[in-house]
Amino acid sequence: TKDVYYGQGAVYALNESDGSTAWTYALGQMSSEGPAAYANGAVIVPSTDPVEQCVAWSIDAATGLYKYQMPTACQWSAYLAPVVSGGSVLQTSQAGFVYSFSEADGTLQWSMPAGAYDQATPAADAHYVYQYGIAATSALSVFDRASGALVTAITDPFSPGNSGYSLFSAPMLTASGNAVSFSGGGFSGRAASSSEQYESRVLVSFDIAHSTYAWRSANAYITHPATANGAVYAARNAPASLDALSETDGHVLWSWTPPAGENFHRNVVVCKNLVFVSTDVNVYAIDLATHQQVWQIPQPGMLAISANRVLYIVTGTTLSDGRLIAVKLQ
């Protein structure tokens, strides 16, 4: 998608083999447009139009044809990608509500307040939906998947509170059944979904089964974390360090330090044997067994890996520069 500010919004389908355009879907004049989610043959894209109407569009992934819209309450929203899971499209609005829509036809299943702002998206499993919020009190809200009923709200005792209008955070579920989130809100000073927050923040792991926090990281991190192999991976600056934290208690299992003068940005992606992280100079692949750098590419930015083992980089350290780079991993 395009990260527009009062411009023509559009969705692009690119062929993975060569980056050529398969189809384009124009949204029209938009004040903002968020990143896309994909599931079961549909592309879901959130947007805000110039008169403050916010909807998530469902577009057929094969043909690029319109399917339906899902409206949410908002003002001037920037976005993280929606979550599509278990027959539902889950969207957190700038007004602070979590919405659940039917994946089949976009009808509203439920909506519940979660104290969130924009630049947020929930996590979900087979039973619950999880959203961190900071509006009244900082807490992780846990909702029933089917009804939307609030199951519990777990207070975050470490939150510094609200620093602006955005969260820049998405809860992350670990193999042990906990949920990990940044503590407190974030702010970038830009009305852009592709921007990075100013703040480094501690990570808090919430014990869902006992409705309490499990641990707090000793350090504050800038990158959106990832989890695998019993660890939570996140990078921090001052000093710069990529840390692997124990999923159980948050202590640092091992670290990797980038070349002097480089600072970390954006997000972490982890697979079976490597963890990928970006600085303001390079994207690095770090071996999970040796904790050493395997290779690097001088294209810093946001990271994702496709099912076909292609690493995608939306280039730009604190704001997208409009380029998408594909790196074949195997």
What can you see in these coordinates?
Helices cover 0% and strands 52% of the residues. It is built from no helices and 32 strands. It has strands at residues 7-14, 21-30, 32-33, 37-39, 42-48, 54-60, 66-72, 83-85, 88-92, 97-102, 108-113, 118-120, 123-124, 128-133, 139-144, 150-155, 166-169, 172-173, 179-182, 201-207, 212-221, 226-228, 231-236, 241-246, 252-256, 264-270, 274-279, 283-287, 293-297, 301-305, 310-315, 324-328. Strands 3, 4, 5, 6 and 7 form a five-stranded antiparallel β-sheet that branches. The chain is globular and about 50 Å long. The mean pLDDT is 95.
Q: Number of helical runs?
A: 0
The major sheet is characterized as: 5 strands, antiparallel
Number of strands: 32
Mean pLDDT: 95
Unreliable parts: none
Feature tags:
four-stranded antiparallel sheet, globular, 52% strand, 330 residues, five-stranded antiparallel sheet
Topology, please?
Blueprint: E1 7-14, E2 21-30, E3 32-33, E4 37-39, E5 42-48, E6 54-60, E7 66-72, E8 83-85, E9 88-92, E10 97-102, E11 108-113, E12 118-120, E13 123-124, E14 128-133, E15 139-144, E16 150-155, E17 166-169, E18 172-173, E19 179-182, E20 201-207, E21 212-221, E22 226-228, E23 231-236, E24 241-246, E25 252-256, E26 264-270, E27 274-279, E28 283-287, E29 293-297, E30 301-305, E31 310-315, E32 324-328
Parallel strand pairs: 12-17
Antiparallel strand pairs: 1-2, 3-5, 4-5, 5-6, 6-7, 8-9, 9-10, 10-11, 13-14, 14-15, 15-16, 18-19, 19-20, 20-21, 22-23, 23-24, 24-25, 26-27, 27-28, 28-29, 30-31, 31-32
